[in-house]
Amino acid sequence: MAILLSSTAGAAEPAARGSTGLSPLTVSVRNTGSEPIACGAAVAHWFSVELGTAAAGAAVTIPLWRDPATGAVFTLNPSQDRLPIERLWCGLAGRSWATRSEITLPRKPGTADDIALACTAEAERLACR
Protein backbone atom coordinates (compact mmCIF):
# COMPACT_ATOMS: atom_id res chain seq x y z
CA MET A 1 0.00 0.00 0.00
CA ALA A 2 1.51 3.34 -1.00
CA ILE A 3 1.13 6.43 1.14
CA LEU A 4 0.98 9.75 -0.64
CA LEU A 5 2.17 12.73 1.39
CA SER A 6 1.62 16.32 0.48
CA SER A 7 4.80 18.32 -0.07
CA THR A 8 3.58 20.79 2.56
CA ALA A 9 2.68 18.23 5.22
CA GLY A 10 4.44 19.14 8.44
CA ALA A 11 6.00 22.27 6.96
CA ALA A 12 6.25 25.09 9.45
CA GLU A 13 4.93 28.52 8.54
CA PRO A 14 7.86 30.90 7.94
CA ALA A 15 8.49 33.35 10.77
CA ALA A 16 7.19 36.87 10.15
CA ARG A 17 9.87 39.42 9.31
CA GLY A 18 10.09 43.19 9.24
CA SER A 19 7.65 45.69 10.65
CA THR A 20 4.67 45.05 8.36
CA GLY A 21 1.53 44.78 10.51
CA LEU A 22 3.33 46.10 13.61
CA SER A 23 3.05 49.44 15.39
CA PRO A 24 6.15 51.43 16.41
CA LEU A 25 6.91 51.71 20.12
CA THR A 26 9.76 54.04 21.09
CA VAL A 27 11.47 53.76 24.46
CA SER A 28 13.49 56.89 25.36
CA VAL A 29 15.80 56.68 28.36
CA ARG A 30 17.56 59.82 29.63
CA ASN A 31 20.62 59.29 31.80
CA THR A 32 20.38 61.83 34.63
CA GLY A 33 23.21 60.19 36.57
CA SER A 34 26.98 60.63 36.49
CA GLU A 35 27.92 57.23 34.96
CA PRO A 36 27.22 55.84 31.48
CA ILE A 37 24.26 53.46 31.16
CA ALA A 38 23.54 50.57 28.81
CA CYS A 39 20.19 49.09 27.83
CA GLY A 40 19.54 45.52 26.72
CA ALA A 41 16.83 42.94 26.26
CA ALA A 42 16.36 39.24 26.76
CA VAL A 43 14.88 37.71 23.65
CA ALA A 44 13.69 34.18 22.96
CA HIS A 45 15.62 31.42 24.71
CA TRP A 46 17.44 33.82 27.06
CA PHE A 47 19.64 35.27 24.38
CA SER A 48 20.28 38.96 25.04
CA VAL A 49 20.84 41.88 22.71
CA GLU A 50 22.33 45.30 23.39
CA LEU A 51 19.94 48.12 22.55
CA GLY A 52 22.01 51.22 23.23
CA THR A 53 24.09 53.27 25.64
CA ALA A 54 23.96 56.80 26.99
CA ALA A 55 26.68 58.88 28.59
CA ALA A 56 25.88 61.01 31.64
CA GLY A 57 23.39 63.70 30.58
CA ALA A 58 22.60 61.97 27.27
CA ALA A 59 19.72 59.75 26.18
CA VAL A 60 19.25 56.50 24.29
CA THR A 61 16.27 55.97 22.01
CA ILE A 62 15.22 52.36 21.46
CA PRO A 63 12.97 51.67 18.46
CA LEU A 64 10.72 48.68 19.14
CA TRP A 65 7.67 47.20 17.43
CA ARG A 66 4.37 45.92 18.84
CA ASP A 67 1.81 43.56 17.43
CA PRO A 68 -1.44 45.41 18.26
CA ALA A 69 -3.43 42.17 17.99
CA THR A 70 -1.42 40.30 20.63
CA GLY A 71 0.58 42.94 22.52
CA ALA A 72 3.86 41.14 21.72
CA VAL A 73 6.90 43.45 21.57
CA PHE A 74 9.82 42.93 19.16
CA THR A 75 13.16 44.34 18.16
CA LEU A 76 14.36 43.75 14.62
CA ASN A 77 17.86 42.46 13.90
CA PRO A 78 19.85 43.61 10.83
CA SER A 79 18.19 40.85 8.77
CA GLN A 80 14.75 42.15 9.82
CA ASP A 81 14.01 39.04 11.88
CA ARG A 82 11.53 39.75 14.66
CA LEU A 83 13.11 39.05 18.04
CA PRO A 84 10.40 38.83 20.74
CA ILE A 85 11.40 40.76 23.84
CA GLU A 86 10.93 38.90 27.10
CA ARG A 87 12.60 41.49 29.38
CA LEU A 88 13.95 44.99 28.82
CA TRP A 89 16.35 46.76 31.18
CA CYS A 90 18.87 49.54 31.55
CA GLY A 91 21.75 49.48 34.02
CA LEU A 92 25.15 50.96 34.63
CA ALA A 93 27.43 50.36 31.63
CA GLY A 94 29.70 47.35 31.98
CA ARG A 95 27.39 45.74 34.53
CA SER A 96 23.94 46.52 33.19
CA TRP A 97 22.35 43.21 34.20
CA ALA A 98 23.64 43.32 37.80
CA THR A 99 22.55 46.95 38.27
CA ARG A 100 19.45 46.82 36.10
CA SER A 101 16.20 48.68 36.34
CA GLU A 102 13.59 46.68 34.44
CA ILE A 103 11.38 48.57 32.03
CA THR A 104 7.78 47.43 31.90
CA LEU A 105 6.47 47.09 28.37
CA PRO A 106 2.79 47.32 27.38
CA ARG A 107 1.67 43.74 26.71
CA LYS A 108 -2.09 44.08 26.22
CA PRO A 109 -3.59 44.09 22.72
CA GLY A 110 -4.46 47.47 21.26
CA THR A 111 -2.53 50.70 21.00
CA ALA A 112 0.24 51.75 23.37
CA ASP A 113 1.99 55.03 24.12
CA ASP A 114 5.72 55.50 23.73
CA ILE A 115 7.76 55.22 26.93
CA ALA A 116 9.98 58.05 28.26
CA LEU A 117 12.05 57.51 31.40
CA ALA A 118 14.79 59.26 33.35
CA CYS A 119 17.36 57.02 35.03
CA THR A 120 19.94 57.62 37.74
CA ALA A 121 22.05 55.42 40.01
CA GLU A 122 20.66 54.82 43.49
CA ALA A 123 22.41 52.50 45.95
CA GLU A 124 24.50 50.65 43.32
CA ARG A 125 21.52 50.10 41.00
CA LEU A 126 19.91 52.15 38.30
CA ALA A 127 16.45 53.55 39.03
CA CYS A 128 14.29 54.51 36.06
CA ARG A 129 11.07 56.48 36.42
Q: What can you see in these coordinates?
A:
- The structure is a single chain.
- The chain is an all-beta fold and 129 residues long.
- It has a single domain (23-128), classed as Sandwich (Immunoglobulin-like), CATH 2.60.40.
- 0% of the residues lie in helices and 47% in strands.
- It is built from no helices and nine strands.
- The chain has strands spanning 23-31, 37-43, 47-54, 59-66, 73-76, 82-92, 101-102, 115-122, 125-128.
- Strands 1, 2, 3, 4, 5, 6, 7, 8 and 9 form a nine-stranded mixed β-sheet that branches.
- The model is unreliable at 1-9 (pLDDT under 50).
Radius of gyration: 18 Å
Instruction: Classify the secondary structure makeup into a structural class.
Output: mainly beta
CATH top level class name:
Mainly Beta
Please write the string of helix (H) and strand (E) elements.
Answer: EEEEEEEEE
The N- to C-terminal Cα distance equals 68 Å
CATH homology-level superfamily: von Hippel-Lindau disease tumour suppressor,  beta domain
How would you describe the shape? elongated
Low-confidence stretches: 1-9
Helix content: under 10%
Quantity of strands, as a count: 9
